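It would be a great kindness if you could assist me with a short task in structural biology. Thank you for your consideration; the sequence and its tokens are set out here.
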Amino acid sequence: MNVSPSAQLWLLGQFRLQFGTETVALCRNGQRLLAFLSLRERVARTVLAGTLWPEVTEEHARGSLRTTLWKLPRGEPPLVRCCGDVLMVTPDLRVDVHALTRTALSVVAGCGPPSCCHPPLGLLTGDDLLPGWDEEWVLLERERLRQLRLHALDTLADTLIQQGRPALAMEAAWAGVRAEPLRESAHRAVVSAHLAEGNVCEALRHYAAFRRLLNDELGVEPSPRFTRLLAEWLPPRAAAGHPECVPGPTA
């Protein structure tokens, strides 16, 4: 079996390894090994064995690593390459997490889609990393990707507003709200999109709803930055950063 450029690994959602149109079944340890290496790219054998088999002796862990490597699909080039004591996945393996990371970092760095292109909302709002896997290294990577996605969605919404595409900006902003309902930056993006369309009433209504949610859940008020966003339409003391002067949401 050749590991060709058509070899793909999905880690967002359920684990899936595919060569061309053929899905390849791996044992649980094989999945864990390939997932960890794909996320870290280069890992020392000792670190890899200790992370995947933390409850056994080092000798036993290294033995489990050798067995798992031997059970991986054979091909040329191999899925996993050895360079001294370091293991890495072959560069020919396309991994969905890498595509997400590149896209999100590009957006955050200000290299988002030009105004003639459709924004990458599908990739930024897709499945979580390996849902149901509860190992510490998965939880850490899952949270890293979640934060990266949230920052990318915030930036994308701002970029789309600046490009004069408030409807698409609203989609990006609401994706951020759904992912983290108490995240103020996502709600600011929703309000900014409303204002870009001239929908002041909807902007004020959304601000009031978020203010009530924040107060109910955390007992705090929106930041002065958020309040100043609506300074033109709020009472003067509220616009100056005194939230107690902001009219509360109607029931």
User: Anything to note?
Assistant: The beta strands are 7-10, 16-19, 22-24, 42-44, 80-83, 86-89, 94-95. Confidence is low (pLDDT under 50) at residues 239-245.
